[in-house]
């Protein structure tokens, strides 16, 4: 296997690609589309954002999906391989004490109106109380197909000092989940090798409201819609099933972080045994079993109008 393919995909991604029938195609396009730098339009995109999703491992080595906020310009780019991010405002679960130089984290920027999104896998090269600086390891765009447009306005109740509390999967949380049109998942694969595709990744999962169902065991069932064929998230989950889901209640201004154990349901027999609320056929379904649920009250700086 050539060096470019090895640096584009890790063993979990390659396994899922092979089973899904995209391995040959990904071997050809991966090195072309996954760059070690940001094109100028990506640099401009990130510097225009007022929030960015982040996947990281905290001080307890637990994978977390979170969100950073700021006025446009809180992210800057001094070169095609570098970003500086002001990390002072977040979901209140996050602070720079969770991070260290050398950590590999995932970043995801989305414009809900234009449905544009770009992803980065990066390594932290510098850190202080207010900022982190990162170097790009992998940079690529994602298709807009499953992003539902939203108009966001400032949340007057945003509380930078609110704390999270552990809760059960209550009826209110279940209703939020089954009516959601998106969530974000942080997953991780790291075998100690210093390759660009190691570390924490964060991705968007979206669809028409109702695309997530909850079965009688309290497990979340999510259809794996046809996408770019990279299988970054599924590849991570195949190797490390523990992940972090982030659900944003844009109406109320709250957020929920759910630590889960994951399973990829492949076989037709197993897929026929579950009900997924979608008219679109999928070859795979993700099954998430909640381990820990945290509510972050008034933690979103923006709400939907």
3D architecture notes:
The chain is of the alpha+beta class and 305 residues long. The protein is 19% helix and 40% strand. The protein contains 7 helices and 18 strands. Strands 3-4-8-7-6-1-2-5 form an 8-stranded antiparallel β-sheet, with helices on one face. Strands 10, 11, 12, 13, 14, 15, 16 and 17 form an 8-stranded antiparallel β-sheet that branches. A hairpin with a 4-residue loop joins strand 6 and strand 7 (116-127). Helix 2 (11-20) crosses helix 6.
Strand content: 35-45%
Count of alpha/pi helices:
7
Distance between the termini: 50 Å
**Could you list the spans in which at least 5 consecutive residues all have pLDDT below 50?**
none
Keywords, separated by commas or semicolons:
eight-stranded antiparallel β-sheet; 305 residues
Topology at a glance:
Elements (H helix, E strand, L loop, with lengths): L2 H6 L2 H10 L2 H11 L6 H9 L2 E7 L5 E7 L5 E5 L2 E5 L2 E2 L13 E8 L4 E12 L3 E12 L9 E3 L9 E3 L4 H8 L3 E8 L9 E8 L6 E2 L5 E4 L8 H8 L2 E8 L4 E12 L2 H5 L12 E12 L5 E3 L1
Antiparallel strand pairs: 1-2, 1-6, 2-5, 3-4, 4-8, 6-7, 7-8, 9-18, 10-17, 11-12, 11-15, 13-14, 14-17, 15-16, 16-17
Helix pairs in contact: 2-6
Provide a short characterization of the protein structure:
By secondary structure, the chain is an alpha+beta fold.
């Amino acid at each position: 296997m050539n060096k470019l393919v090895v640096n584009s995909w890790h063993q979990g991604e390659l396994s899922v690609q092979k089973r899904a029938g995209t391995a040959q195609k990904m071997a050809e396009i991966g090195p072309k589309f996954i760059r070690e730098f940001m094109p100028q339009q990506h640099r401009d995109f990130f510097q225009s954002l007022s929030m960015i999703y982040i996947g990281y491992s905290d001080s307890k080595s637990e994978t977390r999906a979170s969100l950073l906020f700021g006025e446009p310009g809180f992210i800057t780019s001094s070169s095609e391989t570098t970003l500086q991010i002001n990390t002072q405002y977040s979901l209140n679960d996050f602070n720079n004490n969770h991070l260290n130089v050398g950590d590999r984290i995932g970043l995801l920027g989305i414009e809900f109106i234009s449905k544009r999104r770009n992803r980065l896998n990066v390594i932290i090269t510098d850190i202080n109380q207010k900022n982190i600086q990162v170097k790009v390891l992998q940079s690529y765009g994602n298709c807009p197909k499953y992003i539902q447009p939203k108009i966001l306005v400032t949340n007057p109740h945003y509380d930078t000092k609110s704390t999270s509390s552990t809760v059960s999967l209550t009826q209110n949380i279940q209703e939020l989940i089954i009516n959601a049109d998106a969530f974000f998942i942080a997953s991780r694969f790291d075998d100690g090798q210093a390759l660009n595709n190691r570390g924490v990744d964060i991705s968007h999962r979206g669809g028409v409201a109702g695309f997530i169902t909850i079965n009688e065991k309290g497990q979340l069932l999510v259809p794996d819609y046809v996408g770019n064929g990279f299988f970054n998230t599924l590849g991570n989950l195949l190797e490390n099933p523990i992940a972090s889901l982030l659900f944003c209640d844009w109406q109320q201004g709250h957020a929920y972080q759910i630590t889960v154990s994951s399973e990829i349901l492949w076989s037709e027999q197993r897929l026929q045994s579950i009900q997924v609320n979608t008219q679109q056929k999928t070859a795979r379904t993700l099954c998430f079993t909640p381990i820990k649920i945290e509510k972050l009250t008034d933690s979103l700086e923006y709400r939907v109008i």
